[in-house]
TrEMBL record:
<dbReference type="InterPro" id="IPR058163">
    <property type="entry name" value="LysR-type_TF_proteobact-type"/>
</dbReference>
<dbReference type="InterPro" id="IPR005119">
    <property type="entry name" value="LysR_subst-bd"/>
</dbReference>
<protein>
    <recommendedName>
        <fullName>LysR substrate-binding domain-containing protein</fullName>
    </recommendedName>
</protein>
<comment type="similarity">
    <text>Belongs to the LysR transcriptional regulatory family.</text>
</comment>
<feature type="domain" description="LysR substrate-binding">
    <location>
        <begin position="6"/>
        <end position="84"/>
    </location>
</feature>
<dbReference type="Pfam" id="PF03466">
    <property type="entry name" value="LysR_substrate"/>
</dbReference>
Length: 92
């Protein structure tokens, strides 16, 4: 495992989208989740650096209370989101 490096950021944001925009503008590097920059990586606008420091991937789950009948809104969301998330994560 590579040695840890303590970073002193000059820009701190609380939204991944802002961090990605800053990286695209050439303001430095950012650490975001792979799906948040997959389009930018695939287009070549951004590239992965410090790959040796990337954590192992985490599973993604949709969690909801177990009920005999799911509310239609929850069922509709799951039917919409699950296949899209599988496709998106498979492309990473």
């Amino acid at each position: 495992m590579p040695k840890a490096i303590l970073a002193h950021p000059r820009l701190a944001v609380n939204a991944a989208e802002v961090a990605v925009d800053a990286a695209l503008a050439g303001l430095g590097v950012t650490r975001v989740l792979s799906y948040q920059v997959s389009d930018e990586i695939h287009s070549g606008a951004l590239r992965v650096v410090l790959e040796a420091y990337e954590p192992d991937p985490l599973p993604v789950s949709f969690v909801h209370p177990e009920r005999e009948l799911l509310p239609l809104k929850v069922r509709a969301f799951l039917d919409f989101a699950v296949p899209r998330m599988r496709t998106r994560l498979a492309a990473l």
